[in-house]
Write the structure tokens for this entry.
Amino acid sequence: MWWKNAVIYQIYPRSFKDSNGDGIGDINGIISKLDYLNDGTEKSLGIDVVWISPMYTSPMKDFGYDVSDYYSIDPIFGTMDDFDRLITEAHKRDMFVIMDFIPNHTSDQHSWFKQSRSSRDNPKRDWYIWRNPKSHGGPPNNWIGVFGGSAWTYDKKTNQYYLHSFLPEQPDLNWRNQEVVEEMHTVMRFWLDRGVDGFRVDALYHLFKDNTFYNEPQNPIYAKEDNSYNALLHIYTQGQPELISAIADFCSVLSKYGDRFMIGEMYIGLNELIKFHKVCPYSFHVPSNFNLIVKKSDWSVRSIRKFIDNYDTSLRGDRWPNYVLANHDRPRTVTRIGKAQARVATLLLLTLRGMPFIYYGEELGMENTHIPEGKICDPCGRQDPLKGRDPERTPMQWDKQTYAGFSTHDPWLPVNHNFDTYNVESELQDPQSMLNLYRRLIRYRKQSPVLLKGKYESLDVKSRHVFAYIREHKDQKILVVLNFSSKEHKVKLNREADSARVILNTHMDKDKDIKIQLGSLVLRPNEGYVLEIEREKN
Ligand code: GLC
């Protein structure tokens, strides 16, 4: 189970590296930067797995999450040969490749949907979810789409509505139809045969809908300013019981290919998360844990510690935690919790038990980018600029050249104005940069059995702004101490030992191996430490 010790890096392919000068990232661009991710030496970031957001043929209404052919690569990203070469080149560098898999919906331009909508008795009709209008007209029920508005679109030709959990251009497949199930398993096999090492399964929690089609109840705690999708409780459109056997079936497809991995996208709280970690007979399926992607106001020791304590203790044995700080759908960490706390969050992410996920550019401390109105690409952003996801999808900042070295052409989204400070080339030269913090932590983690396997236990500290925990394996103990506030705090941590040796601190100004007294540890504002405990107290 190679993935247990892996550090996973998410690439949003449109924004990583453009090799052909059209302003959009592509596969050859990714290949040209694989050494940056892992060239086998201390210089590179040390990534083990790359997860690449979708590159299938797509009309790009949702930038690849609307697939019109699951068996081909969109020419904007390159060719199938390029893809095969990407797998070979990644494997050469001991990196695994996880592909985005989108089973919940296709594009409305997919030939399956075109056939399905052509007549009520077309053999593909039942591949999608069609319902009659209500007796007095209007959509079949009150279900709403994640991106806003009714989840139903009327199709004049056959006088029925089709269901879409996301955009109207993304009709939902009918997972109660066995042909759909089999076809999607064939899609998985097609890519596994080409050598991909697993899948990130998109919108997995939405896969089944209750087939009574009852209205969903109003959410009693919905506040108007909240996302309009939260106006209803999604008891009939998310997390349906049938999901469990569908996941098990995905896993049995994968299990024929030896040691593979699968992570399903699920925005769920602790209890559901633990349930989905445990229900599937295969331990190599994990539900993604987004509970660290929180607003500044929820970034508190109390709630973060409570979550991690419960999550970690619930997953012992062969079930394995995972932690995500950012992705292509949520604001970047620096934007959410600030520059200084983003470094504290990095220490947390890379010292917990379980798989850390890193979204491209997070290792540079990239921030959300302001997108002028005329440049908005994301359909959510076009509806409401405040909900747009373009700001966290802007080009990777490679160097100080025009367009941050991402392209020679005006990129599809603007480059952040801060690129001449926050870019790979400059940050590699600055020993205290975010990039070097990531590099050093990843390197340390990879060769540290205690961080990879050790037991996690949080400590009671008198200050409510300081989060401290121990990682322990055999005779080695690591102590992590994190100051979640912008004020100095003094803590007493000599319950475990009198002193400890510095491995690393967020400010990167304490020499490695320096000895720290734990009886009165002074944490500067936003400071975190990784310490190795020296001597047991008797
Ligand atoms: C997932 C993706 C998101 C996409 C949506 C619809 O949530 O992460 O980017 O828009 O599914 O496919």
In short: The pocket of alpha-D-glucopyranose is lined by residues 62, 65, 166, 202-203, 265, 328-329 (CB under 6 Å). DSSP finds 14 helices and 21 strands in the chain. Residues 178-193 form the longest helix (16 residues).
